[in-house]
């Protein structure tokens, strides 16, 4: 996976760990990737699909806290992810109507 942020994916990165949220049909996909000790390709260590954005944001919070060991950062990133999901839904909703 490319480290650059894609317009249809929310990306949080710290060191060798990456937490992403992307739209998958009518659901939200949360993934956690990490890089091995030998700096090989990223390995997907967690993936979940949520129908509600609220649960995806909670999942992001849990993964960020797990990776960073910082609850405040987990909450901040979850809020950013929730805002991104709202903007993404608003953009997709207006595109569908056009």
Description:
By secondary structure, the protein is an alpha+beta fold. A 4-stranded antiparallel beta sheet has the order 1-2-3-4, with helices on one face. The protein has helices at 53-68, 71-97, and strands spanning 9-14, 17-24, 27-35, 42-50. It has one domain (9-93). The protein is globular, with a radius of gyration of 14 Å.
Biggest sheet details: 4 strands, antiparallel
**Structure annotation, total helices:** 2
Q: What's the shape? A: globular
* Strand order, sheet with most strands: 1-2-3-4
Overall pLDDT confidence: 88
**Cα-atom radius of gyration:** 14 Å
Overall number of domains? 1
Query: Into which percentage range does the β-strand content fall?
Result: 25-35%
Series of H and E elements: EEEEHH
Roughly how many Å apart are the termini? 32 Å
Task: Kindly state the percentage of residues in helix.
Answer: 40-55%
Category from helices, strands and their pairing: alpha+beta
Q: Which runs of at least 5 residues are low in confidence (pLDDT < 50)?
A: none
Count of distinct strands: 4
């Amino acid at each position: 996976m490319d480290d650059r942020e894609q317009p249809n994916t929310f990306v949080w990165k710290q060191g060798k760990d990456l937490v992403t949220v992307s739209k998958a049909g009518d659901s939200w996909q949360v993934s956690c990737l990490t890089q091995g000790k030998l700096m090989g390709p990223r390995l997907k260590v967690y993936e979940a699909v949520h129908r509600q954005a609220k649960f995806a944001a909670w999942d992001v919070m849990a993964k960020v806290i797990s990776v960073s060991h910082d609850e405040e950062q987990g909450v901040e990133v979850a809020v950013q992810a929730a805002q991104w999901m709202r903007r993404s839904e608003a953009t997709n909703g207006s595109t569908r109507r056009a």
